[in-house]
Amino acid sequence: MALVLNEEQTMLRDSARGFIGDKAPVAHLRQLRDSKDATGFSRDLWRSFAEMGFSGLLVPEEFGGSGLGCVEAGVVMEEIGRTLMPSPFLATAVLAATALKRGGSAAQKSEHLPKIAEGSLLAALAIDEGSKHRPLQTAMQAVRSGNGFKLNGAKAFVVDGHTADLLIVAARSAGAPGEREGLTLFLVDPRSKGIELERTAMVDSHNAARIVFDNVEVNADGVLGEVDQGGMLLEGVLNIGRGAVASEMVGVSEEVFGRTVSYLKERKQFGKLIGEFQALQHRAAHLYTEIEITRAAVLKALQMLDENVDNAGAAVAVAKARAGTTATLAVQEGVQMHGGMGMTDQFDIGFFMKRARVCQELFGDSNFHADQLARLKNY
Amino acid sequence: MPDTDQFRRDARVWLEANCPPEMRRPMTSDEDTFWGGRNAKFSSEPQRVWFERMRDKGWTVPHWPTEFGGGGLDAEQTKILRQEMAAISARLPLVSFGISMLGPALLKYGTDAQKKEHLPKIAAGLIRWCQGYSEPNAGSDLASLQTRAESDGDDFIINGQKIWTSYANFADWIFCLVRTDASGKKHDGISFILFDMASKGVSTKPILLISGKSPFCETFFDNVRVPKANVIGTVNRGWDVAKYLLQHERAMISGMGERGVGRPLGQVAADSIGADEQGRLDDAMLRGQIASFEVDEAALACAAERAVDLAKAGQAHPAFSSAMKYYGTELNKRRHEILMSAGGIDALEWESERSKQGARPRAWLRTKANSIEGGTSEVMLGIVAKRILDLPGA
Q1: What is the pLDDT, as a whole number, of residue B255?
Q2: Chain B residues close to A291, C-beta within 8 Å
Q3: CA A247 to CA A251: how far, in whole Å?
Q4: Which of B265, B298, B299, B296 is nearest to B283 (CA)?
Q5: I want to staple A224 with a disulfide (CB 3.0 to 4.6 A). Which of A185, A349, B124, B187 is the partner?
């Protein structure tokens, strides 16, 4: 497959760019932040997003979606990154849709997937427990009880957790933290008894939640996939999430870079456009190169995920690691080259810097993924 | 697409049957590369067999037309062939500036007669080419070159000096930039011309480098007579040809090194350093450096693949090869710094059988030229800034 977008993907990009750029520029996020909006995103906007078919992108056609792939999801994520639009797209349309599609029983799929496609169900994936992303370290306990399980433990950094109608929770039904075996995924109603949920206000003004589970009962039909065998399913879902977040970071990088290059062409200092200074030209050219290389690596990973190639995991590790370092560099250079203006809240650049930091941590930072690559290569 | 699947299957079967096992190992020294030419010698029987089989198939230049000794493959098939070769770590059967630099320029700017004369010989490895671009004091300011070609009937008489002429002492022919008009702007008045290095008045002198070797030469022209028919493109418009060729040179240099071939760098390091109880390289800092290097290396390979696909789709920026040249050469220097670290004290040996006469440190030192030759990293960044980003200023 060629490493360029095909005609349909290009059309999807243009339509996503038009819609998002028009309805949700950075000012939209700023307004939600300044008004301390309780939801953190616009439900109206999400409804029209769903009407455009975006929420059902990864949902199979038989369940009312368009049955597209990771490349297409990445295309939309990149546009989301360009304007920092807060949206349930990642949590619901990418992660939950994938988890249900891959691991769901016939009943689970037909119950939830059509609602995801029409935009009426919001979901969230609850994985992380410590301060860094370590899925195998999952300690939350799932103990057999009656015809189901009892969940005990706590989750953090649950993206869009506080607005979710459905939680997908990773817990340990066997084994010890650190082991690959013994993980199970559960579908949990967030209104269940024993759940305490707190919205975390984050640096980037996006949504996440901390959730405590105290003897939360889940029926046997709440198990997603096989008991004790959730590790593989989770890894597959996470890899698609990583590819999606990497795409968002490409969008963030490109947007900040575009704004920065424009600034270099208009800002005068010492009687010259600052873009004439070689020191800045070379740094801009270096950043351009980093972004282009990262863009290729991310597209490659998404294509490999769609083709289900064996070593897609390595490609995803490369993509997420690269996207993290590239976005970090892009926002740092963006702020620095904008000088004092770049440090002001009034200017948008800082919003990108904050979002890049969150995306870096989400589903493993660059160090995590470089380490993954080293493990996959046996050293 | 079933056609390309079929091609992949056929290529795999053919490579499996025809690529000798000895040609599926990473190259470790200069002798592992076959450059062709009038005085070419094969360093081993498998090297000869591999070269001849690939040549007969047209696969020394798989994407060139068959009438010029190529394989007639389209871009997709060429990509598949490269992937299948990489999958078994097959070496290139022939490395040549004729293939990577002159060939593309001849295909674009050469006359029918020039193509028929030169391309088949390049494909068959019969003529080894060198590049006469750089001159003393010109450096990256290539267009300031002084070598003069004066008209004399049907011929030019060439006088001047070139420097950094890679392997000029082994080359049969040279593709050369000469000044045919000194009156106008420096980019105008340059012509691109080919001639035989055995011509009267041509001499070369190797330049010893910090690696202890001499890939480069000084090359002198003293009243060298060359037919005007050997000019490629239009007289005084050689800069167009030169620029086009430089794009290919930069793409080639960015791909240098053993990228994607052989064992992962972390395992190479583990051979000398060892692993801890959990099987991790027993030098946590170096392991981290290697891992982040391999992330960048894998990403660059994606970008190289995408560059080809973009070109095919008509979406490539002509100056993108400068970005790739910059990144590829900086990365290759990083690779060799890591290899030196991984080798530790053993990598310091310079003259011994055991070290293959210091193959590793010499290769390390050689890579330091990567970010200078073919335009320095700073020149590449300047090109990206001006031609791609459209930043202002001189």
Answers
A1: 64
A2: none
A3: 6
A4: B265
A5: A185
Chain centroid offset of residue B385 CA: 24
- Distance, CA of B372 to CA of B210 (rounded, Å): 14
The helix/strand/coil state of B283 is coil
The alpha carbon of residue B51 is apart from the nearest alpha carbon of chain A, in Å, by 29
Is A332 within 8 Å of A283 (Cβ atoms)?
no
Inter-residue contact B335 to B189 (CB < 8 Å) = no
SS3 B220: strand
Of A10, A342, A337, nearest to B389 by C-alpha is A337
Kindly identify which residue of chain A lies nearest to residue B269, measuring between CA atoms.
A379
Shortest CB distance from A284 goes to which of B266, B303, B389?
A: B389
Among B84, B87, B123, which residue's Cα sits nearest to residue B4? Answer: B84
- How many other C-beta atoms are found inside a 10 Å radius of the C-beta of residue B180? 23
Per-residue model confidence (pLDDT) at position B252: 73
Closest CA to B202 of B167, B242, B148, B162: B162
Report the predicted TM-score, pTM, of the whole model to 2 decimal places.
0.90
* pLDDT at res. B215: 84
pLDDT lower than 50: segments of chain A: none
Gyration radius of chain B's alpha carbons? 22
- What DSSP designation does B281 have? B
Residues in chain A closer than 8 A to B313 (CB atoms):
2, 4
Q: Which of B302, B327, B341 to mutate to test the interface with A (most CBs of A within 10 A)?
A: B302
